[in-house]
């Protein structure tokens, strides 16, 4: 279709849609993302009409339900508008927020209640203390240190990290095995490029799991292989059956998003698998610092340091804005991880030095202790409100981290996510993190993922009230549909 200006109000039936491959989730979710991208990149102009659901379904050779679900989601997010007796159109934007996505001025939807998982308490970032450390770094760094940084990172930071990981995570690592990087995804990209250079073609990932990990593996030129996770963690028996796989990314201390801890027998099995295959385990130490009702779980790296690379970052403990992480790698992998062709740029040397001071002064340990207390108090408040508003509702994943799982036996979680968005509440469904939709008879087939890290204590009652209303409305609609069907 010829390109058109922003004032176009005609049909947008020939718009190019970039559908992701089937490995990136169910078709309705991929179509939603493709349509959203077409709007934000200007291929679908404000005011243009969308094809009827049956027409687009015929073009895509899919069911009409796929299209209606995608349209409904984008109406809920504010991209589209639908009126009775009229075609669905791209909403004309006048600078107001668009739910769930970008605005024309570059801003994003800021919901009143943000329950997305994986976001720490950004209001608790230690601004003054961090500013003091940055000020000291800029004042005291030598002229030589202001030049191009060591590819592995500031040596004194690596010494501090080695001591911290040994003390707090039970790791067995020397400073020379540590590489400072820009976060977990940067670490995974570097490791995957190194694996590919040595002949690896596939990397196993947890399913469900953090979607960005699968995308990063693919971006590095390797094939991600989803391995199911159950109540005991990664299915190591299925990992053994996966042909051509000698590397895996796993979060044994606190799996995202299920929250399970890798069972001791499976930890041993995973370490044995890595030794037998002469493989590599990339251990994502995802929010392992935050545990409330159970004892700390030591890093798997401490059990098999010659086959495990421990990955950590400050995204969950301080803020994603501090793009700083680390790899505690087996000694044989360290040269490849710092090679010029592996890619990756070390974080700014000033930030590295500031974090060194933050750790050595004891500020990091104090911040972590205060965060644990804050999250536990907020979690307890959230559990009380859920019991009051949704009596008898099962809750999982409460022992650690800063998100909960709410399995819903009688209504679809995706529909609750959409209904909650209409009430200015943002959260996620467990299906958002699956490589493929779960079978309907799976215990966690319909499950909400409710984050509370970046939710203020005062906002907990209001957030739960709106969430409960969304669940009740979807349950009522589901019951009505079942009644009509019988």
Question: What do you see in this structure?
Answer:
With 486 residues, the chain is α/β, with parallel strands linked by helices. It is built from 14 helices and 15 strands. The protein has helices spanning 27-40, 53-60, 64-77, 127-140, 155-169, 184-197, 211-219, 236-241, 264-277, 334-337, 349-360, 363-389, 413-422, 460-485, and strands spanning 80-81, 89-90, 113-114, 178-181, 202-207, 223-230, 233-234, 245-250, 280-284, 308-313, 325-328, 403-407, 425-426, 428-429, 447-451. The strands form four sheets. It has an eight-stranded mixed sheet, sandwiched between helices. β8, α9 (264-277) and β9 form a beta-alpha-beta unit. The protein is globular, with a radius of gyration of 24 Å. Mean pLDDT is 86; it is low at 1-9 and 94-107.
